[in-house]
Amino acid sequence: MSDLQAQIEEIILGRREKRMAVTTFAAIDISSYEITMKIFEFSKKGGFRTVDDIRYRLNLGVGVYSGGTMEVDKVDTICEVLNDFKRIMAEYGVKEYRACTTSVFREMKNPLIIIEQIFRRTGIHVEVLSNAEQHFLGYKSIAAIENGFKKMIQKGTAILDVGGGNLQISLFDKDALVTTQSLKMGSVRIRQRLKELEKTNTNYAQLVEEFIRNDLTGFKRLYLKDREIKNLILMGDFLTETIFREERQDNIITRAEFEKRYENTVYKTETSLSEEMDIDPEYAALIVPTMVICKDFMDLFNAEALWMPGVSLLDGIAYDFGEKKNFIKSAHNFENDILVAARNIAKRYSTGKDHIKGTTDLALAIFDSMKKVHGMGDRERLLLQIAVQLHDCGKYISMGDVAECSYQIIMATEIIGLSTEERQIIANAVRYNTAEFVYYSEIAGEVGMDRSVYLLIAKLTAILRIANAMDRSHYQKVKNMKAMLKDRTLLLTVDSEQDISLELGLLMDKVEFFEEVFGIRLVFRRKRKV
Question: pTM of whole model > 0.85?
Fold first, then answer.
């Protein structure tokens, strides 16, 4: 082979290796006021970067937030845009994508019908994120771009996410998520509710402020109390793409700078804002509600500055993809945020801290010892931990109907990072911890539950029942337990210096269900100390 041929071969090989080393991914978001797509490149060495950002302005929230329906012509437009996105993805060689939508689809009367139409016409499957999933991905996007994020949330930090339909506020302290709450005061929703009143009111900003005041007062009373918030972060790129375009360098806006821009903005009409920024009037109409919300929260927290990193849900979707594919290793423990959120919910309903810890240790010992039998993974292990955290929360409402009250509390409470389906799994496992288990033929027609979901509920319930029964007295008599699976028998060796006759005596009906679910024998042996 000549030197020239060798060089050509080397170049070809280098290009091939480069293509193999880089993975291209697309994230799509169908939001209340626009459809967006970002193309990302991932590599083991460089992490990920944005290579393209495509947007199509489309106000979808108007009909949905008032009547729960979407006009046919808007569905047509969504399909046209997504087909255009498919062509762009093909040009970039995208093999994997994730298309999501949020409140605009959550509040539809017929979201499944519209999603099916979109899939048949475009081949793109659209995933409806729960509110908790949406904002979990949102704050992942902040962690993705800010090296000091972990340091920042050591002190009181609030993340504000102003969407079209909802507003999400998440509080962090000491590197842990304290609470996350969703308020129905998104910019599109506010605009729609106040549109007629604006015609007869000369001070639209004051109208918006009065409209949201009650929710802000309630939030302050329930969740702030003595908590001091040092940092305020605004999610999304709406304001950085409109009002604060020139501040894109560091995106940190001082209180004085924000108030000055506020005074120069909120008293203008949507027409004048549209002309000044060269944007669509409907898009400009969202600026005032968004600015009022931000100012009110700055006042509420007495924040000295507002950081607007300019990231969006798309960045969070990409970050999540990179984590799962091992392109990114996060310094922040996001799974722990979910557990802390569950722990704070349990604390709110006065559950027994020592009982929860003891039961968690027992449940995880059982789970970890029989992975070959149950076929569950890390995510299911997390769901089991949350079920243990919340299995007694219903006692706060009724000591006589703990199962049903616990179920209702969990279903009515957002747990950041969990889908609606995962919350249903946890709620049902907690319900059947003490209630009689309902078999699939009885429940499927009533709630339309998927078989795989039903089986997961049965498995988590079986483990929860055993672990909970072993601390029936709430005295944490079992200090240590060793679980060992051999053939088709799970041997639980219990270490206790106290009388555990109550616990062992009440286990029999739990054991029967456990053995039925997993098809193995469960045997207890007590280790006696000399």
Answer: no
